Amino acid sequence: MSQTDMKRQLSDPASDATDSEDMEEDDEYANYYYDNTDDLDIDKPKKTDDPEYFEYTILQTEDAERLLNEEVERLCSELKMSPSLAKMLLHVGQWQGEDIIERYQQDQRKLLTESNVSCPKEMKEDSLVGSSPGCPVCAECYPRDKFMGLTCGHLFCPHCWDMHFRFQIEQGITMGIECMGQKCKILVPEDFLYSVLKDSKLRDRFSKLCFMDLIKGHPKLRFCPGPNCSVIIHAKEPRAKKVECSVCKSTFCFRCGIEYHAPTDCDVIKKWLTKCADDSETANYISAHTKDCPSCHVCIEKSAGCNHMQCSKCKFDFCWMCLGDWKSHGSEYYECSRYKENPNIANESVLVQAREALKKYLFYFERWENHAKSLQLEEQTLQKITSRINVKVMENEGTWIDWQYLQNAAALLKKCRYTLQYTYPYAYYMDKGGRKQLFEYQQAQLEAEVENLSWKVERAEITHRGDLENQMDIAEKRRQTLLKDFLEV
């Protein structure tokens, strides 16, 4: 198959043929994209080929406890220390056992000091010599051997320690409980706390909260954020990859725990979400669901996910986002997705620059928000497809297996549009240059094929199965290519 033939096959099936001038204009990017393409038939990606592939294990609470205990026991065995101290060192050192062992063997005291950890071996009665009979907190007098303290030398009565622990636990603090001494950062090990705290309910609460803190502090473990889900995810590497809980079906990013956001990385998506929340009032005007047809000006409501709109009155095909003629969206570069900056903005006044910055943000936010709404509408489309399949099966028009491709198409559309939505925060924060141009090109290609797929899915009754499945292959190939080039590894 020639380069030109391949381009024609990948163009928008609903649009007119792309003219040769447009094809030549983007030869540089087209060559990049199709260098490794031999066939448009796309099998499911192999583990080694899928940029989103991620190995992880679903654990229950007892499994996670066993894993933590094994790491604690290993440190105890290597360094001949108490489990309480080993657990504290691992938590402070982010569970980097090898590094902790090496540093401990080089300079034990330096590691403990830098970690603000007390060594139980030094907590003996002979270390309390010279203490005052009056407690520094309550001023009550006790026999000298009743005072308790850590390696920092700050000594208090058991009653004050007990009250201190009660207050900290009620505030949800466990592994971060510090000595009561003024400005003292020495952390309290759990064996010291258990030797003081007698309330069984508080001891149980401490144990549960402590376990949660240990999981949250472990780079290879993460609680599933699903509602009322007790599942814990264990991964070999703490990467920003997609996790799907097999129990509650929640999907999220393993590294940051929020909604999966490829290709945007964790820090960027947090900035973007914060900015959207801060500027939500400024962007309120975007939330309207109606626009005027650019041809006959009749008011049109967007009731489906596809951005390829057709006016019911004049039958004009246009783009919901830019209101341009849809025929222009079948060209090799889907200009609607690319923001055109003012090349002379650096020479403009501060006010003009501020307006340009707002214009740029609104451009990306509008597309981000639009794809989010399209996802919601396409979920309704999936439900309609399921209902139609049920009717057909009941009327003996084929079996569930015969119509399964329609559900597969709707599911793939959701997957591709989800990725497309998260390309906009990525593009917003990208620096100018060749890499951004390449990203915008691939983003535009994905956007065009997603809209083609959406158009066909919404008209599944009249779409030929082979045509629909071919469009699914093309859309997924676009998505995979973009992620391979830009997803954080």
TrEMBL record:
GO molecular function: ubiquitin protein ligase activity; zinc ion binding
Family designation: Belongs to the RBR family. Ariadne subfamily.
Protein name: RBR-type E3 ubiquitin transferase
Ranges where the RING-type domain occurs: 131-340
Keyword Transferase: yes
Localization per Swiss-Prot or TrEMBL: Nucleus
Pfam families linked: Ariadne (PF19422), IBR (PF01485), IBR_1 (PF22191), UBA_ARIH2_N (PF26000)
Catalytic activity, reaction form: [E2 ubiquitin-conjugating enzyme]-S-ubiquitinyl-L-cysteine + [acceptor protein]-L-lysine = [E2 ubiquitin-conjugating enzyme]-L-cysteine + [acceptor protein]-N(6)-ubiquitinyl-L-lysine
Major subcellular site: nucleus
Acidic residues compositional bias, start-end: 18-29
Ranges in a coiled coil: 443-485
